[in-house]
């Protein structure tokens, strides 16, 4: 029990607890057999050095869940990893040191990457502590550490044994700038304007040239209606349209729609590719869009994925013409060495010069680009490592997971069903998990590492035995490394101690919807393949954080907010509440400063409640025996129990927004506005037994409130909790409140007291009176079957500062006219210079007389200077007062449960 500071000072409180919690080990997973596990599969963020507001949304959700589950008695494992490997770091290191990765030995380059990554991690770690996240840092992992990537290698070896991993020469997406293969999930699309070129391919079929018997002969009408715009005079030529003339050297066929009448009898004919002169055959395929261009498309190895399909299905040649760095290769002849864009222009010029370029037009197209550098990707066929994608197994596993919100499953399903290639996992880079394999120099045998040799870098170490096929000892280590998703897709396995302990699904995965097709997809694939299990019971998906104007945050738009800015202006506790209240999980939320300021006001309120309450507590308060609770005490404890149930339901459903709203409403209104006001008299002036009951009930309700609020405002609740007597060492090692129950009648009586006190408080405030102003007396009429209800007026009486009498039935009240208020805006224009006299006459008349005239005649007549004038009822306002049967003036407030008479 510590003394509470007078002022709420979030800066010093948050700094203090940030450090102290670490020293105390409050958030450590105990691996306690007695308690249920609650394991979170925390995203390992890419160490960019900047933990931004978008990150903080997901981490707030995880932290709310982690803290809530600790209160519920679960043994919570909230680990934190770092997804270190990858291209962005390599690029950054190349920039920072002004080198190309091949300028230094692999190991040296790797060291530079590690050094860079460590500094980035430190910065993000600091922000996580500032925000009050409760990870167990003894379970921190970094995918670049050998103890982690050794497990990534183990998962690779095991999947290879099970036939999930294979090596094949298959076309893959290739970024010519990054010079590496990339997976489908790393290809983004960009809409841009390109050029569609119309080209003539001359006929190469001998018989056609000689026969001249073709229907599309000469320059007949038919040639034009057929859609061909051949200008070369070769009647048997064909016109194709392409956006990529630079791939002409890679052309291996021409495809048309089998239902396209223009080409119906030409299937099987051969044509010569302009400039490059290879002969290609015309074939039909249902996938051709006959409305595009001329309806005849050139098939290259490879312009796009469709080319790959045709190439495989129609058994076409392979003519690779693009190099790994995006230049034209030897097959391009005189154009060899040109970059793709240059080649496009030069080849178009050459086509024009050869008189085979018939036309060009602009076209809107969707281009696949590298996620990292926006360079248009190429499709190259190379020896690569692949992971087999078993769509059925993945979807079956995904359906065993509870998706929150539910529709996020559909996103995964859509992605999985649309996948047509296996997952290419090899990358031609350095800073990543080495693929643990060697090639026999003699016979080409591929050896995958034995598990007990892991972790291993095959560029540094040999397998340690000769080739089983040919006995050669000359091995070449694989230099390809793994896609970083191979690292991060084993996180649930890694954090649960795989492979030592057998894997069971963890309780929660939290992640953004933007990485469903990568992180969620790959993790499901991997645990299904390795352990035949779902990775998690629940997947909680978060949206994005938008700026106050509802748009994506950007520095140039001025709607950009960083967590540290909010912390320094207000507090982490306020920031966390603004995030929670932004909306329900799964939706995009809008960051609102006004939520931060209202959260700050609420926190000050909680501070003040605690300050007031702690003045009345001593070390014995929690253990007061058989407190003689009054109705108000029972009421707050009943309300508190109801709120605890409801908040628990919301927390179980991850509706953090609803849970926090419920809590704030309870603490602010029920506890502070209503209960504390009813209680003050007893706390200050009650007899010892009465005071003890009040203190005990207040202690119970406040302690419960702080515990329930602790997931949202961990710092303030901790500081406040420390000022209460006899608690746990931290509010965060406390339990979820479980409160005494009372009969429903007590609840009803308590509610009535609260409502009456609140109504009178409102009445005093409207009347401009001090809230503690003394009143003559209060009569409370409650109609309960003629019986006088046993209402406890003790607290009520002191709260309203008046004696309170309970009566049954309806009060006998009448409205008595006591004055008249003439309306000058009606009387003035009507009576002009006599208006003053009319007003005087009205004021001189008995108001009861005026009221009677209005009721019986519908008008008023008064004598004015020997004359009788008649006025409409609108000309006056009759002022009335309520009078009790005794004739005393009284104010009346109607409530649902009864009627209050105030004698003042
Ligand atoms: Zn790239
Ligand atoms: Zn061999």
From TrEMBL:
Its EC number is 6.1.1.9. InterPro entries: aa-tRNA-synth_I_CS (IPR001412), aa-tRNA-synth_Ia (IPR002300), Anticodon_Ia_Val (IPR033705), M/V/L/I-tRNA-synth_anticd-bd (IPR013155), Rossmann-like_a/b/a_fold (IPR014729), tRNAsynth_Ia_anticodon-bd (IPR009080), Val/Leu/Ile-tRNA-synth_edit (IPR009008), Valine-tRNA_ligase_type_2 (IPR022874). One of its GO terms (molecular function) is valine-tRNA ligase activity. One of its GO terms (cellular component) is cytosol. It catalyses: tRNA(Val) + L-valine + ATP = L-valyl-tRNA(Val) + AMP + diphosphate. Residues 207-236 are annotated as: Disordered. It is found in: Cytoplasm. ATP binds at residue 555. A motif ('HIGH' region) lies at residues 45-55. GO terms for biological process: valyl-tRNA aminoacylation. Residues 225-234 have a biased composition (Polar residues). Residues 17-591 form the Aminoacyl-tRNA synthetase class Ia domain. PROSITE patterns: AA_TRNA_LIGASE_I. Gene3D superfamilies: 3.30.720.200, HUPs (3.40.50.620), Isoleucyl-tRNA Synthetase, Domain 1 (1.10.730.10). Pfam families: Anticodon_1 (PF08264), tRNA-synt_1 (PF00133). Its main location: cytoplasm. It is an enzyme of class 6 (ligase). A motif ('KMSKS' region) lies at residues 552-556. Keywords: Aminoacyl-tRNA synthetase, ATP-binding, Cytoplasm, Ligase, Nucleotide-binding, Protein biosynthesis. Residues 633-776 form the Methionyl/Valyl/Leucyl/Isoleucyl-tRNA synthetase anticodon-binding domain. Catalyzes the attachment of valine to tRNA(Val). As ValRS can inadvertently accommodate and process structurally similar amino acids such as threonine, to avoid such errors, it has a 'posttransfer' editing activity that hydrolyzes mischarged Thr-tRNA(Val) in a tRNA-dependent manner. ValRS has two distinct active sites: one for aminoacylation and one for editing. The misactivated threonine is translocated from the active site to the editing site. Belongs to the class-I aminoacyl-tRNA synthetase family. ValS type 2 subfamily. This is Valine--tRNA ligase.
């Amino acid at each position: 029990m510590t003394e509470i500071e007078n002022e709420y000072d979030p800066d010093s409180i948050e700094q203090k607890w940030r450090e102290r919690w670490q020293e105390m080990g409050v958030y450590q997973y105990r691996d306690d057999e007695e308690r249920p596990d609650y394991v979170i599969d925390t995203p390992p963020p890419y160490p960019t050095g900047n933990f931004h507001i978008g990150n903080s949304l997901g981490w707030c959700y995880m932290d709310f869940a982690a803290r809530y589950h600790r209160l519920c008695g679960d043994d919570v494992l909230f680990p934190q990893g770092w997804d270190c490997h990858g291209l962005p770091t390599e690029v950054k290191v190349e920039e920072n040191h002004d080198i190309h990765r091949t300028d230094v030995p692999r190991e040296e380059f790797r060291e530079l990457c590690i050094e860079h990554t460590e500094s980035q991690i430190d910065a993000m770690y600091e922000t996580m502590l500032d925000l009050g996240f409760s990870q167990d840092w003894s379970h921190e992992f970094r995918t670049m550490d050998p103890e982690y990537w050794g497990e990534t290698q183990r998962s690779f070896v095991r999947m290879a044994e099970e036939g999930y991993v294979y090596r094949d020469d298959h076309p893959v997406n290739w970024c010519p700038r990054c010079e590496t293969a990339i997976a489908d999930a790393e290809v983004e699309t960009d809409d841009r304007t390109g050029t569609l070129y119309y080209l003539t391919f001359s006929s190469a079929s001998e018989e056609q040239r000689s026969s001249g018997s073709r229907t599309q002969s000469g320059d007949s009408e038919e040639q034009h209606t057929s859609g061909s715009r051949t200008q070369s005079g070769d009647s048997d030529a064909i016109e194709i349209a392409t956006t990529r003339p630079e791939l002409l050297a890679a052309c291996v066929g021409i495809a048309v729609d089998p239902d396209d009448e223009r080409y119906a009898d030409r299937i099987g004919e051969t044509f010569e590719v302009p400039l490059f002169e290879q002969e290609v055959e015309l074939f039909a395929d249902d996938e051709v869009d006959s409305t595009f261009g001329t309806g005849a498309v050139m098939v290259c190895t490879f312009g796009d994925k469709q080319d790959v399909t045709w190439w495989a299905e129609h058994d076409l040649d392979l003519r690779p013409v693009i190099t790994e760095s995006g230049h034209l290769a030897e097959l391009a002849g005189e154009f060899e060495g040109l970059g793709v864009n240059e080649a496009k222009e030069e080849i178009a010029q050459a086509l024009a010069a050869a008189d085979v370029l018939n036309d060009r037009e602009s076209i809107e197209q969707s281009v696949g680009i590298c996620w990292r550098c926006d360079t248009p990707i190429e499709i190259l066929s190379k020896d690569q490592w692949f992971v087999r994608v078993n769509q059925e197994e993945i979807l079956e596993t995904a359906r065993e997971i509870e998706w929150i919100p539910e529709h996020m499953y559909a996103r995964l399903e859509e992605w999985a069903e649309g996948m047509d290639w296996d997952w290419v996992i090899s990358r031609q880079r350095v800073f990543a998990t080495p693929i643990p394999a060697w090639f026999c120099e003699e016979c080409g045998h591929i050896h995958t590492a034995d598990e007990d040799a892991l972790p291993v870098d095959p560029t540094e170490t040999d397998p340690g035995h000769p080739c089983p096929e040919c006995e050669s000892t000359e091995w070449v280590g694989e230099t390809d490394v793994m896609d970083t998703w191979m690292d991060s897709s084993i996180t649930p396995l890694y954090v649960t101690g795989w492979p030592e302990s057998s894997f069971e699904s963890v309780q929660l995965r939290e992640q953004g919807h933007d990485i469903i097709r990568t992180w969620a997809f790959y993790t499901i694939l991997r645990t299904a393949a390795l352990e035949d299990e779902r990775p998690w019971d629940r997947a909680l998906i978060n949206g994005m954080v938008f700026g106050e104007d509802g748009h994506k945050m950007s520095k140039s738009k001025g709607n950009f907010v960083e967590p540290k800015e909010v912390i320094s202006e207000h507090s982490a506790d306020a920031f966390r509440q603004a995030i929670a209240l932004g909306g329900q999980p799964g939706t995009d939320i809008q960051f609102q400063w006004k939520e931060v300021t209202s959260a700050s006001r609420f926190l000050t309120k909680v501070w003040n409640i605690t300050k007031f309450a702690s003045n009345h507590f001593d070390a014995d308060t929690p253990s007061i025996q058989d407190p003689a609770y009054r109705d108000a005490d029972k009421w707050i404890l009943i309300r508190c129990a109801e709120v605890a149930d409801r908040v628990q339901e919301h927390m179980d459903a991850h509706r953090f927004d609803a849970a926090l709203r419920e809590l704030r409403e309870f603490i602010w209104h029920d506890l502070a506005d209503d209960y504390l006001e009813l209680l003050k008299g007893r706390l200050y002036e009650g007899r010892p037994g009465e005071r003890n009951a009040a203190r005990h009930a207040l202690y119970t309700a406040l302690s419960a409130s702080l515990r329930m609020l602790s997931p949202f405002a961990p710092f303030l609740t901790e500081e406040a909790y420390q000022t209460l007597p006899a608690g746990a060492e931290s509010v965060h090692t406390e339990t979820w409140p479980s409160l005494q129950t009372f009969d429903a009648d007590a609840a009803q009586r308590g509610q009535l007291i609260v409502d009456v006190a609140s109504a009178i408080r409102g009445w005093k405030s409207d009347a401009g009176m001090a809230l503690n102003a003394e009143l003559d007396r209060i009569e409370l009429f409650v109609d309960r079957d003629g019986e006088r209800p046993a209402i406890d007026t003790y607290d009520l009486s002191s709260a309203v500062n008046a004696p309170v009498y309970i009566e049954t039935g309806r009060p006998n009240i009448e409205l008595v006219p006591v004055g008249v208020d003439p309306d000058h805006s009606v009387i003035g224009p009507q009576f002009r210079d006599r208006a003053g006299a009319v007003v005087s006459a009205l004021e001189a008349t008995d108001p009861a007389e005026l009221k009677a005239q209005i009721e019986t005649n519908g008008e008023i007549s008064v004598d004015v200077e020997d004359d009788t004038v008649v006025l409409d009822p609108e000309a006056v306002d009759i002022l009335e007062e309520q009078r009790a049967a005794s004739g005393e003036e009284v104010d009346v407030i109607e409530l649902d449960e009864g009627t209050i008479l105030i004698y003042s």
